[in-house]
Amino acid sequence: MIALSKRIILHKSFEWFIAGVILINSIFIGVETYFTNPLILTIQNIALGIFTIEIILRWLAKENIKNFFSDGWNIFD
Length: 77
Fold this sequence. Notes:
Blueprint: H1 2-10, H2 12-32, H3 38-61, H4 65-69, H5 72-76
């Protein structure tokens, strides 16, 4: 499982996908400042699900919890 998780998180397409989700979610956070509707909330919930899967994959890719938390980005996330 560790090897598969590492292959996924280190793949360029995964990095670009996550960057795209971050950008889209940021836009909708800004839009939500002025108004909201069910579609915006649904998109944000989908982004939350994607971010949850991302952090789980990053956790699984590390050999132990110390290695996971030694990466500043994982602490930030």
